[in-house]
Amino acid sequence: MKRMNKFWIVLSHTYLSRVKSKSFIFTTAIFLLFILAFVNIESIINLFTGSDDEEVVAVLDESDYLYEVLVEGISQVDEDATIELFEGNLEEAEEAVLAGDYEGILQLFLDENGLPVATYHTEQLSNTTLQFQLEGQLQQMKVAIATSQAGIDQDILEQIYAPVHFDTVLIESEGSDSTLKSEEEMAGAIGLVTVILVLLYIAVITYGSMIATDIANEKSSRVMEVLISSSSPVSQMFAKIIGIAMLGLTQFSVVILFGFILIQQKQNAASGSFFDGLGLTNVPTSTYLYAILFFLLGYLLYATIAAMLGSIVSRSEDVQQLMVPFIMLIAIAYVIAMVGMNMPESTLVTVSSFIPFFAPMLMFLRVGMLEIPLWEVGLSIGIMVATIAILAIIGARVYRGGVLMYGPSSSLKDFKRALQLSKKE
To answer: Which range in 109-113, 166-170, 279-283 is most confidently predicted, on average pLDDT?
Structure first.
């Protein structure tokens, strides 16, 4: 009972001291501002670019009919982009552009073959969207005029330019253990898999470093010597891990809830739902459950390693140097997962999904994008749970010996020294 009380004391102290810190409040505020900016990115861009105003282009038509044809075509592409026939010469039109009356000037000509030629004058070369729209419309006009001159019927021309009918049919072999999901499920699964991979990558690096730094700071104050002598190393270590996990859960919950409210408001205005806005309407419930499971297992796996690393350094300045292999490990898993999204059935992804340090990302990738046998998922989860248990046992010994180590400690060789010290206790 006393040990449990000490466990909760360490856990609550770890959580409360962090959640009240200025750094936690500041980073949470940054995340919220990022979500706010991301959801309203179009409005922000329009605020600085003034895109809410109509983009009017002055047209100098040297032909007899190109302007009328262009007006009809451009209005079907962008209602905000309008063209206006300019009565005057090029010099007067350029002065009107400089005065802010027009976005640019479009000169229309006919070449020797009777096909349209254009010159666009502007003071804003960066506004390529409008230029591409005008160029695209003129290209269509050129094709229409050229085919009309050649005597090609318009109905035949429409058939030529109509998109080809192209279907994809999956061939399932009798001995195949995994198949791709339906097209609708894949569209939603890709979005969810990407989100979970990014969140796990951020969480492991951010909160893993936080665990290691927190342990190193307390070790430098000699507080750990008192705690470790009066409580179990395993409970002490997992109190830190779970305390930081609760901190991360608090931060993620605030950010996700804030994002949910913003996106839901936008979707309500568009007669949709939160899941419609993220493209997750066709994702099975089981995939969400797997997302939570693999996220938690991945966190526990890497957090245990981070706790061991933090216990063998004496100064917080040494944490980052010792965390390089830790970060490289999760970075390799993330890269394989990102590449594997284009080939989830590859041998590399399949084999890596059973390696405990890669499984949280890669097995979830396979679960989200493929129909795989349940025994493969269970085996991968079992391997991860066993690995976490082994790391907890080894980590407890390293933790007990590591917190008694002082002096320079920036090498993985210090694990051996920490284990030797734990045997003497």
So the answer is: 109-113
